[in-house]
Amino acid sequence: MTPVPVAALVSGGGTNLQALLDALGRDSAVARITRVVSSRADSAALERARRADVPVTVLADPADAAELVRAVGDARLVVLAGYLKRVPPAAVARFRWRLINIHPALLPAFGGDGMYGRRVHEAVLASGVALSGATVHYVDEEYDRGPILAQWPVPVRADDTPDSLAARVLEVEHRLLPAAVLALARLGVPERAVRLCAKRAAFITGDNLAVEID
Fold first, then answer.
1. What is the DSSP string of the chain?
2. Of 103, 121, 137, 174, which one is the catalytic site residue?
3. 103 given a catalytic annotation
4. For the chain, which domains are there?
């Protein structure tokens, strides 16, 4: 089996990129990070990629769809791993059903323009909800509105701060995103929306999205 080539788009520290590099390194027969593309030259994620000997590209203009498509190259799957720029519509169309994102909340709640990082966790705590979590979803032309691929809930505790909640959500992000990427790769990256449900350590396809936490 030839590994599915995966491009990771990054903007910040790159902890989700590191989770992908670690997981795909252990399962390289299924999928492999073949390039990392950053919206910022000072992204710490770039050093993570270089340490893993993965080619890197820094976009001159993240709004330029043609530049982004060139940077992604022959990747079969494109993963937004902490990428904070809007993907241009022409690039979304080019990678329809092959472009996914990780978001630090249970979409469709707490998503949309400007909802990233600490802002998300502050909004969750202000709302009084009992659950937050992480969502992997397909990317479309609107922020955080594409079909949901997989979710993993975590409890919101009475004594939570934005930082403590962020740490709990990030822990499951680092497990959910690689699992979703590997599941899509094993399915051949279908040219349609797929929903995944978790059953113990492996994702399976299903008509209804559900996550069972053992």
1. -PPEEEEEEE-S--HHHHHHHHHHHHTTTTEEEEEEEES-TT-THHHHHHHTT--EEE-S-TT-HHHHHHHHTT-SEEEESS--SPPPHHHHHHTTTSEEEEESS-TTTT-STT--THHHHHHHHHHT-SEEEEEEEE--SSTT-SPEEEEEEEEPPTT--HHHHHHHHHHHHHHHHHHHHHHHHHTT--SS---EEEETTEEEE-SS--B---
2. 103
3. yes
4. 4-205 (3.40.50.170)
